[in-house]
Amino acid sequence: MNLMLNLEPWWRFAAALLIGALIGLEREFVQQRTEERDFAGIRTFSLMALLGAVAAYFSQQFGLLLFIAVYLSLALLVWVSHLGDIYRGHEKGITTEVVALIVPLLGAMVIWGEVELAAALGVITALLLALKPRLHGLARRMSAEDLKATLEFALITAVVLPLLPNQSFGPFGVLNPFQIWLLVVLVSGIGFLGYVLIKTLGAEQGVGLTGVLGGLVSSTATTVSLAGRSKGNPGLSSILVRGIVLASCVMFPRVLVEVGVIYPPLLRIVSLPIGAMLLVSLGLVLYLWRGRRADEQEDREEMKVSNPLRLQTAITFALVFSVVLIVVRAANEFFGDAGVYVASALAGLTDVDAITLSVSELASYGQLHPQVAGMAVVLATLVNTAAKAVMVWFLGAPELRRTVMRAFGLVLLTGIAGSAIVLGIGF
């Protein structure tokens, strides 16, 4: 601490320089490879950040007007430079100019005590600049429906969520509008991550990528889709089975993340059986991948997955989650632990998110015993895995059925054994 005080304000100036250099490095990198000269590179951005830091430092003694005067002078120089480019007939955007206005402010924030925030904003700025090709490609691939759905997600996150009351009411006092909608945002965000990755990496991808990213959106829907494709293309069954098992793999860490976010103490109960099922699934994927034929060609059919961020979808999930919340609480009240397990099994037939979030929420408020909640989550994952196996049996080609039934059977046995160990230990 004393060393840090002795280094004041030098370490802050150094931090401002590094933030400016990071952003300038990205600009310099682009200029070197595109041969498009801009008015600012790594040196200029470093000096701009330092200028902002120095102006902020002296403004503490001579008043904020000094910083404002320096900043406006720099803004004027940037504007004149941009006008010069226009006069010389250089048609380009103003991204570099906008960044030049941000960098001095980041340097000033370091002096004013917001070092962590300035560093984070600097990294985000550099990342946005570096992701230009990906972001432009994503925008080109977006449809009008995608844009509408994404704006609706912004609406439910930034507008609706803050307006909801953060208090419980309703049957058994388990309905909290803010908490329910927050979980809607969490699940929608997980689905959105998979959707954005699919759009960013391209629509024409192999089945492996389909399994991983489609599993983020819905492992059940991905299983149904891939199994259905095997009917018309039985020769692709050995490839499609890997996508199905991969999609199921994604379900397990997704459940662990949801439990960890809502009520971390439950992880000590669910981690062993769900973690074991995840490891076995990954082992099966590795085995299936290594055992593929040398002449086997990857399927390059266009992957179609709908945008999960629709207002109607969010409202539907909120209603389903609320109903599941009440049903689980009522089942526990009137039928004890057995009622919770029955409700969990029924919910797991189609999806694990609603039941995982509901029992975790109830356990966090002390309205459900942690062991009951944990085993309910495990039961839902087991039932969902079994349900997907049944779906493959009815929808898939014979070659697909045999492999999936063996794979999911092994995963189910592993989960059951893990659950037995947890119950035997008595968490």
Radius of gyration: 27 Å
- Topology, number of strands: 0
Give the low-confidence spans. Answer: 293-303
Principal-axis shape equals globular
Written as H for each helix and E for each strand, in order along the chain, the element string is HHHHHHHHHHHHHHHHH
* Beta strand %: under 5%
Distance from N terminus to C terminus (CA atoms, Å) equals 43 Å
Largest sheet: none
Structural class: mainly alpha
Enumerate how many helices there are, as a single number: 17
Let me know the average pLDDT.
Answer: 77
Task: State the domain count.
Answer: 2
Helix share of residues? Answer: over 70%
Report what the structure shows.
The chain is mainly α. The protein folds into two domains: 2-130, no CATH class; 142-425, no CATH class. The protein contains 17 helices and no strands. It has helices spanning 2-6, 10-34, 42-62, 64-87, 95-111, 115-130, 132-141, 144-163, 177-201, 207-232, 237-262, 267-290, 311-335, 337-348, 353-364, 370-395, 398-425. Mean pLDDT is 77; it is low at 293-303.
Give the tags.
427 residues; globular; 0% strand; single chain
Secondary structure blueprint with pairings:
Blueprint lengths: L1 H5 L3 H25 L7 H21 L1 H24 L7 H17 L3 H16 L1 H10 L2 H20 L13 H25 L5 H26 L4 H26 L4 H24 L20 H25 L1 H12 L4 H12 L5 H26 L2 H28 L2
Short description:
This protein has 427 residues and is an all-alpha fold.
